[in-house]
Amino acid sequence: MTKWGLEIDETHFLGGLDKTPFLQSINPAIFFDDSKENIDRAKIYVPSAQVIYGINNLDPNILIKSPSIESRNIQNEHST
Question: Matching PANTHER family, A to Z (predicted)?
């Protein structure tokens, strides 16, 4: 994350468990996960962002469906 000028304070990996009770107790600044279900539960309590490139999102068409700038850049790299 130094490329973005960010410093990671802590990371936690819970192996697919429901993270909501844990997030409520630690009250993170932001929560990232590749599971839409985890994001939907967590966003009620903490700022949350889905990582669309995670293991739960192996569908190769996800890049085409995503309106993000990053996905358009990736599509452009593959078309050259």
Answer: CYTOSOLIC 5'-NUCLEOTIDASE 1 FAMILY MEMBER, CYTOSOLIC 5'-NUCLEOTIDASE 1A
